[in-house]
Amino acid sequence: ATFANGNAVESDFLIGADGVHSRARAQFINDGEPLNRGYTIWRGTSPITPAAIPPGIGIELYGRGKRFGIGPVGLGRTGWWAAANTHYTDRFTDLFAGWYAPVMELIEATPPASILKNIATDREPNKNWGAGRMTLLGDAIHPTTPNLGQGGCQAMEDALVLARCFEKYGASEVALRNYEHLRHARTATLTRISRYYGRVGQLENIFARTLRRTALALAPGAILRRSLQIVFDYRAQL
Q: How far, in Å, CA of 124 to CA of 108, rounded?
């Protein structure tokens, strides 16, 4: 592997885990840039927990082409994320003015320099992850929109399954191909579910938003929890 600074490293295997704009992917698959899904994401961690937010509760708020999520992250801090369709040109602090009071409280308490801003992107699932002694891992092969909070999680699952494949099949190309086979279906499914979730969350049409609100209000909690089992019931073992 030759790097931009001119250094070169020789190893038995190359695992491209270099993110959504992976150079390893560009050289191996060369399928262009990730797909823009039409909305912007902001993420931050506030050092406070507004009094109005019940302890240990996650909240997601829906508006017209906008969303705001809130959840505890421990040590008295609160994690939050926001989404707005890209045609909104207001300043970020103006996008959610007038929303549920803790929204602005959290934004204003978060150091501006620590707020992460990204365009929501992903890629169509690809079965071709590698060849020979090279493979890809995490966002380099299956970047996903952040709607399920699974980007980093899927990379960790990849790493665990890859390690177990090396343990089972030895340091071989067979281990890489089995890792790819084991991980493709799950990552492809979660990428698609996250994409569809984002489409529903970013709706602007008043009739579609009414239908969304009604469906969420009427759906039994047990069914909503069961729908998330595909995310949480996975066991990364061979």
A: 36
81 and 146 Cβ atoms separated by less than 8 Å: yes
Tokens at residue 37, please?
Answer: 């899904």
User: How do residues 93-107 score in pLDDT, each as one tens digit?
Assistant: 899 999 999 999 999
Q: Enumerate the H helices of the chain as residue ranges.
A: 23-28, 92-95, 101-109, 151-169, 173-201, 206-218, 221-227, 229-232
Neighbours of 209 (CB within 10 A): 16
**Cα of 26 vs its chain's centroid, Å:** 21
DSSP SS3 for 16: strand
Residue 234, H or E segment: none
Residue with tokens 């890859």: 162
* Helix ranges (DSSP H) in 202-218: 206-218
* pLDDT mean across residues, the chain: 94
- pLDDT higher than threshold 80 for residue 42: yes
- With cut-offs at 50, 70 and 90, classify the pLDDT of residue 211: very high
DSSP string, 145-192: -GGGS-HHHHHHHHHHHHHHHHHHH-SSHHHHHHHHHHHHHHHHHHHH
**Euclidean distance between CA atoms 140 and 147, whole angstroms:** 18
Model's pTM, two decimal places?
A: 0.90
* pLDDT tens, residue by residue, 46-83: 999 999 998 888 999 999 999 999 999 988 899 999 99
pLDDT in the model for residue 238: 65
**DSSP-based three-state secondary structure for 73:** strand
DSSP character for 112? G
